[in-house]
Amino acid sequence: MTESSQRNTILTLSSVAFTLMFAVWLMFGVLGIPIRKEFGLTEVQFGWLTAIAILNGSIWRLLFGVWTDRYGGRRVLTLLVALTAIPAFLVSRAASFNELMIYAFLVGMAGNAFSIGIAWNSAWFPRERQGFALGVFGAGNVGASVTKFIGPGLIALVPAAGLLGGVVPGGWRFVPFLYGVLLVIMAAAIWFLSPTHDHKPGAGRSMHDLLQPMRAMRVWRFSLYYVVVFGAYVALSVWLPKYYVDVYKMPLQQAALLTALFIFPASLLRPLGGWMSDKFGARRIMYWVFGTMLAALVILSIPNGRVSFDSYNGAAGGFHFGTGPVLFTVLVFLVGCGMGIGKAAVYKYIPEYFPKDVGAVGGLVGLLGALGGFFLPPLFAWAKVRTGLPQTTFGLLFLITAASFLWLHLVVQRMLRQATPQIANRLEPVGS
Questions:
Q1: CATH number of 3-423
Q2: 402 Cβ contact list (under 8 Å, min separation 6)
Q3: Confidence band, pLDDT 50/70/90 cuts, at residue 430
Q4: Which residues pair with 319 in a beta bridge?
Q5: Which helix (H) or strand (E) holds 46?
Q6: Which residues are CB-neighbours of 194 under 8 A, at least 6 positions away?
Q7: The dihedral of CA 206, 211, 212, 213: what is its sign?
C-alpha cells in the first residue's frame, strides 16, 4: 500500500470513527427529552445531564493529543473507541438519575476522539493538504445529527419492554445499546484496517517539551475562537431540540429534524472551510465567520413580545415582534454555516504555527473549546430561569462571539501598525 493510500485509509477510518463517537457524545440532546419525562427532571437537572458528557469529552483532550503524538493514533483511537462501548451499554441499564449521571459522564469520553484524529491526520498529511484533510475529518461533527435522525424513530419502534426477553433494552435505552455494539465493531475496524506502522512526531520527547507551546498567547486566543465555533455548536446541538419543543411546541421528531438543519452546515461545511483557509488564509475567513454569526445572533436574541398603544381617538393598536419558527431556523442555519467554516479555519492555524506540536496545541484548543460546550447548557438554563426568556441563549452567544471578534480585530490592527508598508494590506503575515 502506497503512502497516499495509507493516509487516505487513516482519514477514512478516523472520520467514520469520529462521526460515531460524536453521535455517542451528544446523544443526550435527543434522549434527554424522554429521560426528562421518565425521571421527572427539573430544568437545571436536564441542563446538567446534557452537559456532563460534554465535560468528560473535554478535559482529557490535551492528554489524548499528546499521547497520539507519542504512541500513534492507531493504538490510542482503538483503545478509546473500545473502552467507550462499556459505559454506552451501562447507560442503557441506568435505573436512577444518579446512575445515569455517572454513566453519562463516562460515555462522554467519546468526545476526546477529536484530539486523536487531528493529531493522527496531521502527522500523515503534508502541510499543503492539512487544512482540507482536517476539515474532512472534522466533518465527523455531523455525528451530532445521527441521534436526531434515528433516535426518535428507534425509540418509537423498539417496545419499551425490549427484545429477546429484555436482553436488548427498548425505548430510549435501545439507542445507547446500539451505539455500544457499533463501537465494538469500529474499534476492530481501526485496529485491523489501518497501517500497522504509524507516524509518531512526539516519540522520544519529554512531556515538558511537548507542553512548551502552551506559553504562547495565540494558543489561548485560538481556544477562545474555538469556544465560539465549536463549544457553542456542541451546546446548541444538545439544546436546540428542547428549545423547539418548549418555545414552538413542536413534537420531538420535528424538533430533532430541524436541529439537524443546524448541525449539517456546522459539520459538513468544515471541508469547505479547510479549503478556503488553505487558499485565502485562516484570519480572513474568521472575519467573515464572526461577522455572519453576530448578524444572525443579534436577531435571535430579540425576545418574542407585543407592543401595544392607544391612538388619540381611543382606538387600540400594536404589533408583535420576535422570531417565528421559520425565521428562527433560517438564522440558526446561518450560525451553523459560520461555525462549520470557522472550526476548520481555527485548526488551520495550528499546524501553520505549531507544526511539531499539533497534538498538544490541538488538544488544548479542543479542550477549552469543548469546555465551552460543557458550561453553556447549564448557563442557558440559569439565564432562562433568571429572566424567563429562552432567547437569552442567543444573547449569551452574541456576547462571547463579540469578544472573540474584538480580540481578532485588535490583533490584526496591532499587526498592521507594526508591519511594513509592503505588507500593510495582508491579513496573513508570517509569524502573526
A1: 1.20.1250.20
A2: 294
A3: very low
A4: 307
A5: helix 43-56
A6: 9, 10, 13, 74
A7: positive
pLDDT at 307: 46
Q: Assess contact for 54 and 374: CB atoms under 8 A.
A: yes
**Residues constituting the chain:** 432
Please list the residues that pair with 309 across neighbouring strands: 317
Sign of CA dihedral 247, 249, 251, 257: negative
- Tell me the C-alpha distance between 308 and 312, whole Å: 14
Separation between Cα atoms, residue 356 and residue 119, nearest integer Å? 10
Half-sphere CA count of 342, side-chain side, radius 13 A = 32
Extract the C-alpha cell encoding 283. 484570519
The cell for 40 is 421527572
pLDDT for residue 151 is more than 60: yes
Place of cell 493504538: 75
Task: Give residue-wise pLDDT tens across range 342-366.
Answer: 998 998 888 788 877 777 888 888 8
Q: Are strands 316-321 and 305-310 parallel, antiparallel or unpaired?
A: antiparallel
Cα–Cα distances (Å) from 166 to 86, 99, 233, 293, 431, in that order, read 18, 19, 36, 47, 60
Rg (CA), the chain: 22
pTM: 0.73
Q: Quick check: 345 and 285 in contact, CB under 8 A? A: yes
What's the rounded Cα separation, in Å, for the pair 197 and 70? Answer: 13
- Whether the per-residue pLDDT at 280 is higher than 70: the answer is yes
Contact 39, 28 (CB under 8 A): no
**106 membership: H or E segment, kind and range:** helix 97-107
Q: Are 92 and 166 in contact (CB under 8 A)?
A: no
